[in-house]
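Predict the 3D structure for this chain.
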Amino acid sequence: MSQTKYRIDALQYANWSENIFRQMREGEVDAVHVTIAYHENFRETVANIEQWNSFFERFPGLIFQGKTGDDVRLARETDRTAIFFGFQNPSPMEDDIRLLEILHALGARFMQLTYNNQSLLATGCYEKNDPGVTRMGREVIAEMNRIGLVVDMSHSAEGSTLEAIEISDRPIVITHANPAFWHPALRNKSNEVMQALGETGGMLGFSMYPHHLKNGSNCSLESFCEMIAAAAETMGIDHIGLGSDLCQDQPDSVVEWMRVGRWTKKVDYGEGSASNAGFPPMPNWFNDNRDFRNIEQGLLDVGFNVEDTSKIMGNNWLRFFDENFGSA
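Done. Predicted structure below.
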Protein backbone atom coordinates (compact mmCIF):
# COMPACT_ATOMS: atom_id res chain seq x y z
CA MET A 1 0.00 0.00 0.00
CA SER A 2 1.15 3.55 -0.72
CA GLN A 3 2.72 5.49 2.14
CA THR A 4 0.15 8.24 1.56
CA LYS A 5 -1.40 9.32 4.86
CA TYR A 6 -5.16 8.76 4.82
CA ARG A 7 -7.76 10.08 7.24
CA ILE A 8 -10.70 7.73 7.80
CA ASP A 9 -13.45 7.98 10.41
CA ALA A 10 -15.18 4.66 11.06
CA LEU A 11 -18.43 6.09 12.46
CA GLN A 12 -20.47 9.29 12.26
CA TYR A 13 -24.19 10.03 12.56
CA ALA A 14 -24.45 13.75 11.88
CA ASN A 15 -27.35 15.92 10.78
CA TRP A 16 -25.91 15.97 7.28
CA SER A 17 -25.53 19.24 5.40
CA GLU A 18 -23.35 21.03 2.88
CA ASN A 19 -21.60 22.69 5.82
CA ILE A 20 -20.54 19.33 7.27
CA PHE A 21 -19.41 18.04 3.88
CA ARG A 22 -17.27 21.15 3.44
CA GLN A 23 -15.79 20.65 6.90
CA MET A 24 -14.85 17.11 5.87
CA ARG A 25 -12.87 18.59 3.01
CA GLU A 26 -11.27 21.24 5.23
CA GLY A 27 -10.24 18.44 7.57
CA GLU A 28 -8.91 16.36 4.65
CA VAL A 29 -11.09 13.41 5.68
CA ASP A 30 -10.87 10.84 2.90
CA ALA A 31 -13.63 8.49 4.05
CA VAL A 32 -16.41 8.30 6.62
CA HIS A 33 -18.54 5.33 7.61
CA VAL A 34 -22.00 6.84 8.16
CA THR A 35 -24.90 5.28 10.02
CA ILE A 36 -27.92 5.09 7.73
CA ALA A 37 -30.11 2.97 10.03
CA TYR A 38 -30.70 2.58 13.75
CA HIS A 39 -34.12 0.91 13.98
CA GLU A 40 -35.35 1.31 10.41
CA ASN A 41 -36.80 -1.64 8.53
CA PHE A 42 -35.72 -2.52 4.99
CA ARG A 43 -37.97 -0.08 3.14
CA GLU A 44 -37.17 2.77 5.52
CA THR A 45 -33.47 2.08 5.05
CA VAL A 46 -33.91 2.26 1.28
CA ALA A 47 -35.55 5.67 1.80
CA ASN A 48 -32.45 6.77 3.74
CA ILE A 49 -30.30 5.60 0.84
CA GLU A 50 -32.49 7.68 -1.47
CA GLN A 51 -31.71 10.70 0.70
CA TRP A 52 -28.00 9.99 0.44
CA ASN A 53 -28.29 9.62 -3.32
CA SER A 54 -29.72 13.14 -3.39
CA PHE A 55 -26.70 14.36 -1.41
CA PHE A 56 -24.37 12.69 -3.91
CA GLU A 57 -26.22 14.40 -6.76
CA ARG A 58 -26.22 17.83 -5.09
CA PHE A 59 -22.62 17.82 -3.85
CA PRO A 60 -20.59 15.74 -6.33
CA GLY A 61 -17.53 17.91 -5.79
CA LEU A 62 -17.51 17.14 -2.06
CA ILE A 63 -18.74 13.55 -1.51
CA PHE A 64 -19.51 10.30 -3.33
CA GLN A 65 -20.55 6.80 -2.33
CA GLY A 66 -17.68 4.50 -1.40
CA LYS A 67 -17.80 0.74 -1.80
CA THR A 68 -14.13 -0.36 -1.90
CA GLY A 69 -10.76 0.69 -0.58
CA ASP A 70 -9.94 2.08 -4.01
CA ASP A 71 -12.74 4.60 -3.52
CA VAL A 72 -10.78 6.01 -0.56
CA ARG A 73 -7.81 6.49 -2.87
CA LEU A 74 -10.07 8.10 -5.48
CA ALA A 75 -11.39 10.45 -2.80
CA ARG A 76 -7.85 11.56 -1.98
CA GLU A 77 -6.96 12.01 -5.65
CA THR A 78 -10.07 14.10 -6.37
CA ASP A 79 -10.23 16.08 -3.10
CA ARG A 80 -13.53 14.53 -1.98
CA THR A 81 -14.82 12.31 0.83
CA ALA A 82 -15.98 8.74 0.20
CA ILE A 83 -19.12 7.86 2.17
CA PHE A 84 -19.55 4.24 3.31
CA PHE A 85 -22.94 3.00 4.58
CA GLY A 86 -23.51 1.01 7.75
CA PHE A 87 -26.24 -0.05 10.19
CA GLN A 88 -26.18 0.15 13.99
CA ASN A 89 -28.80 -2.58 14.22
CA PRO A 90 -29.76 -5.57 12.05
CA SER A 91 -33.30 -4.20 11.63
CA PRO A 92 -32.80 -3.37 7.90
CA MET A 93 -32.57 -7.10 7.15
CA GLU A 94 -35.76 -7.68 9.18
CA ASP A 95 -35.94 -11.46 9.67
CA ASP A 96 -34.88 -12.34 6.12
CA ILE A 97 -31.26 -13.41 5.60
CA ARG A 98 -31.69 -13.00 1.83
CA LEU A 99 -31.99 -9.25 2.22
CA LEU A 100 -28.33 -9.04 3.30
CA GLU A 101 -27.02 -9.49 -0.23
CA ILE A 102 -29.41 -6.82 -1.50
CA LEU A 103 -28.33 -4.39 1.23
CA HIS A 104 -24.69 -5.05 0.38
CA ALA A 105 -25.43 -4.38 -3.30
CA LEU A 106 -26.96 -1.04 -2.26
CA GLY A 107 -23.68 -0.14 -0.57
CA ALA A 108 -23.89 -1.37 3.02
CA ARG A 109 -20.45 -2.35 4.30
CA PHE A 110 -20.94 -2.64 8.09
CA MET A 111 -23.76 -4.04 10.22
CA GLN A 112 -23.95 -4.25 14.00
CA LEU A 113 -25.50 -7.47 15.25
CA THR A 114 -27.11 -5.57 18.14
CA TYR A 115 -27.87 -2.08 19.34
CA ASN A 116 -27.79 -2.25 23.18
CA ASN A 117 -30.65 -4.80 23.41
CA GLN A 118 -31.05 -8.46 22.55
CA SER A 119 -31.68 -8.88 18.84
CA LEU A 120 -32.52 -11.85 16.66
CA LEU A 121 -28.76 -12.28 16.23
CA ALA A 122 -26.94 -11.57 19.51
CA THR A 123 -27.03 -9.77 22.86
CA GLY A 124 -26.61 -6.04 23.43
CA CYS A 125 -24.42 -4.52 26.12
CA TYR A 126 -27.36 -3.26 28.25
CA GLU A 127 -28.92 -6.69 28.77
CA LYS A 128 -28.62 -8.36 32.19
CA ASN A 129 -28.01 -11.80 30.68
CA ASP A 130 -25.78 -12.58 27.71
CA PRO A 131 -26.59 -15.92 26.06
CA GLY A 132 -24.36 -15.09 23.10
CA VAL A 133 -24.86 -15.35 19.36
CA THR A 134 -28.15 -16.99 18.37
CA ARG A 135 -28.75 -19.71 15.79
CA MET A 136 -29.83 -17.07 13.30
CA GLY A 137 -26.83 -14.97 14.25
CA ARG A 138 -24.49 -17.78 13.22
CA GLU A 139 -26.18 -18.03 9.83
CA VAL A 140 -26.11 -14.26 9.36
CA ILE A 141 -22.40 -14.05 10.23
CA ALA A 142 -21.66 -16.74 7.63
CA GLU A 143 -23.65 -14.85 5.00
CA MET A 144 -22.00 -11.55 5.91
CA ASN A 145 -18.61 -13.25 5.54
CA ARG A 146 -19.60 -14.54 2.12
CA ILE A 147 -20.72 -11.24 0.64
CA GLY A 148 -18.25 -8.87 2.34
CA LEU A 149 -20.54 -7.18 4.86
CA VAL A 150 -18.45 -6.52 7.98
CA VAL A 151 -19.64 -7.68 11.40
CA ASP A 152 -19.65 -4.77 13.88
CA MET A 153 -20.03 -5.49 17.63
CA SER A 154 -19.78 -1.92 18.95
CA HIS A 155 -22.97 -2.12 21.05
CA SER A 156 -22.80 -5.83 21.86
CA ALA A 157 -22.31 -7.64 25.14
CA GLU A 158 -19.00 -9.25 26.10
CA GLY A 159 -19.86 -12.90 25.55
CA SER A 160 -21.63 -12.25 22.27
CA THR A 161 -18.67 -10.23 21.02
CA LEU A 162 -16.13 -12.92 21.88
CA GLU A 163 -18.36 -15.56 20.32
CA ALA A 164 -18.78 -13.52 17.12
CA ILE A 165 -15.00 -13.16 16.86
CA GLU A 166 -14.67 -16.93 17.16
CA ILE A 167 -17.50 -17.75 14.76
CA SER A 168 -16.62 -15.32 11.98
CA ASP A 169 -14.28 -16.55 9.26
CA ARG A 170 -13.36 -12.93 8.56
CA PRO A 171 -12.10 -10.30 10.99
CA ILE A 172 -14.82 -8.33 12.74
CA VAL A 173 -14.76 -4.76 14.00
CA ILE A 174 -15.79 -2.53 16.85
CA THR A 175 -16.14 0.72 14.93
CA HIS A 176 -16.72 3.08 17.87
CA ALA A 177 -15.77 2.33 21.48
CA ASN A 178 -12.88 2.72 23.92
CA PRO A 179 -11.06 0.43 26.38
CA ALA A 180 -12.88 -0.28 29.64
CA PHE A 181 -9.57 -0.05 31.54
CA TRP A 182 -9.57 3.69 30.74
CA HIS A 183 -13.27 4.44 31.26
CA PRO A 184 -15.69 1.74 32.49
CA ALA A 185 -18.74 2.62 30.37
CA LEU A 186 -21.00 -0.31 29.45
CA ARG A 187 -20.17 0.32 25.80
CA ASN A 188 -16.41 0.22 26.29
CA LYS A 189 -14.49 -3.01 25.74
CA SER A 190 -12.47 -5.33 27.97
CA ASN A 191 -8.85 -6.28 27.45
CA GLU A 192 -10.00 -9.80 26.56
CA VAL A 193 -12.17 -8.49 23.72
CA MET A 194 -9.40 -6.17 22.51
CA GLN A 195 -6.83 -8.94 22.52
CA ALA A 196 -9.13 -11.34 20.66
CA LEU A 197 -9.93 -8.65 18.13
CA GLY A 198 -6.24 -7.92 17.48
CA GLU A 199 -5.26 -11.59 17.29
CA THR A 200 -7.86 -12.27 14.59
CA GLY A 201 -7.09 -9.23 12.42
CA GLY A 202 -10.01 -7.12 13.57
CA MET A 203 -10.17 -3.38 14.19
CA LEU A 204 -11.15 -1.07 17.04
CA GLY A 205 -12.14 2.52 16.28
CA PHE A 206 -11.62 4.89 19.21
CA SER A 207 -14.64 7.03 20.03
CA MET A 208 -14.68 10.74 20.86
CA TYR A 209 -18.29 10.62 22.12
CA PRO A 210 -18.17 12.09 25.66
CA HIS A 211 -20.03 9.23 27.38
CA HIS A 212 -17.19 6.95 26.20
CA LEU A 213 -14.42 9.28 27.45
CA LYS A 214 -12.63 9.51 30.79
CA ASN A 215 -13.92 12.72 32.40
CA GLY A 216 -16.54 13.05 29.68
CA SER A 217 -16.62 16.37 27.84
CA ASN A 218 -13.64 17.48 29.93
CA CYS A 219 -11.40 14.67 28.67
CA SER A 220 -8.02 16.01 27.62
CA LEU A 221 -6.43 15.27 24.27
CA GLU A 222 -3.34 14.00 26.07
CA SER A 223 -5.40 11.50 28.09
CA PHE A 224 -7.18 10.30 24.93
CA CYS A 225 -3.90 9.79 23.06
CA GLU A 226 -2.24 8.09 26.03
CA MET A 227 -5.20 5.70 26.09
CA ILE A 228 -4.59 4.90 22.42
CA ALA A 229 -0.93 4.20 23.21
CA ALA A 230 -1.94 1.77 25.97
CA ALA A 231 -4.48 0.09 23.69
CA ALA A 232 -1.80 -0.33 21.02
CA GLU A 233 0.21 -2.36 23.52
CA THR A 234 -2.79 -4.66 24.00
CA MET A 235 -4.01 -5.00 20.40
CA GLY A 236 -1.02 -4.18 18.21
CA ILE A 237 -0.53 -1.00 16.22
CA ASP A 238 -2.05 -2.49 13.04
CA HIS A 239 -5.52 -3.04 14.52
CA ILE A 240 -6.54 0.39 15.80
CA GLY A 241 -8.06 3.47 14.21
CA LEU A 242 -10.65 6.15 14.82
CA GLY A 243 -14.46 5.91 15.01
CA SER A 244 -15.49 9.29 16.37
CA ASP A 245 -19.24 8.64 16.87
CA LEU A 246 -19.65 12.30 15.92
CA CYS A 247 -23.32 13.32 15.99
CA GLN A 248 -22.79 16.88 14.80
CA ASP A 249 -25.78 19.27 14.63
CA GLN A 250 -28.27 16.60 15.70
CA PRO A 251 -31.17 17.75 17.90
CA ASP A 252 -31.40 16.16 21.34
CA SER A 253 -34.56 14.36 20.24
CA VAL A 254 -32.42 12.08 18.07
CA VAL A 255 -30.90 10.51 21.19
CA GLU A 256 -34.34 9.18 22.05
CA TRP A 257 -34.65 7.57 18.59
CA MET A 258 -31.23 5.97 19.04
CA ARG A 259 -32.03 4.45 22.43
CA VAL A 260 -35.77 3.87 22.25
CA GLY A 261 -36.61 3.18 18.63
CA ARG A 262 -39.85 1.20 18.72
CA TRP A 263 -39.06 -1.32 21.42
CA THR A 264 -40.48 0.58 24.43
CA LYS A 265 -43.05 3.25 25.30
CA LYS A 266 -40.75 4.69 27.95
CA VAL A 267 -37.71 6.93 27.62
CA ASP A 268 -34.50 4.92 27.93
CA TYR A 269 -31.64 6.87 29.46
CA GLY A 270 -29.06 4.20 28.76
CA GLU A 271 -26.25 4.16 31.30
CA GLY A 272 -27.32 7.23 33.25
CA SER A 273 -30.20 9.37 34.45
CA ALA A 274 -32.39 11.93 32.72
CA SER A 275 -29.32 14.16 32.61
CA ASN A 276 -28.08 11.93 29.79
CA ALA A 277 -31.17 12.63 27.69
CA GLY A 278 -29.42 14.91 25.19
CA PHE A 279 -26.11 15.14 23.43
CA PRO A 280 -23.25 16.19 25.74
CA PRO A 281 -20.77 18.85 24.59
CA MET A 282 -17.88 17.45 22.61
CA PRO A 283 -14.36 17.83 24.08
CA ASN A 284 -12.80 21.14 23.05
CA TRP A 285 -10.21 19.41 20.84
CA PHE A 286 -12.81 17.64 18.67
CA ASN A 287 -15.92 19.50 17.57
CA ASP A 288 -16.11 18.59 13.89
CA ASN A 289 -14.22 17.04 10.98
CA ARG A 290 -11.70 19.86 10.84
CA ASP A 291 -10.29 18.72 14.20
CA PHE A 292 -8.75 15.42 13.12
CA ARG A 293 -5.51 17.38 12.80
CA ASN A 294 -5.62 17.90 16.58
CA ILE A 295 -5.70 14.15 17.16
CA GLU A 296 -2.88 13.60 14.70
CA GLN A 297 -0.72 16.12 16.55
CA GLY A 298 -1.76 14.64 19.90
CA LEU A 299 -0.58 11.19 18.82
CA LEU A 300 2.77 12.60 17.77
CA ASP A 301 3.04 14.48 21.06
CA VAL A 302 2.62 11.31 23.18
CA GLY A 303 5.37 9.52 21.26
CA PHE A 304 3.91 7.82 18.19
CA ASN A 305 6.13 8.08 15.14
CA VAL A 306 4.84 9.38 11.82
CA GLU A 307 4.22 5.91 10.35
CA ASP A 308 2.23 4.64 13.33
CA THR A 309 0.30 7.89 13.57
CA SER A 310 -0.70 7.47 9.92
CA LYS A 311 -1.86 3.93 10.63
CA ILE A 312 -4.15 5.14 13.41
CA MET A 313 -5.46 8.12 11.44
CA GLY A 314 -6.62 5.99 8.53
CA ASN A 315 -4.11 3.68 6.91
CA ASN A 316 -5.15 0.71 9.07
CA TRP A 317 -8.80 1.18 8.12
CA LEU A 318 -7.88 1.40 4.44
CA ARG A 319 -6.02 -1.91 4.62
CA PHE A 320 -9.04 -3.44 6.35
CA PHE A 321 -11.39 -2.09 3.65
CA ASP A 322 -9.15 -3.57 0.94
CA GLU A 323 -9.19 -6.99 2.56
CA ASN A 324 -12.80 -7.27 3.71
CA PHE A 325 -15.27 -5.41 1.48
CA GLY A 326 -15.16 -7.93 -1.35
CA SER A 327 -16.97 -11.24 -1.55
CA ALA A 328 -15.24 -14.30 -0.13
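The first helix runs from residue 18 to 26.
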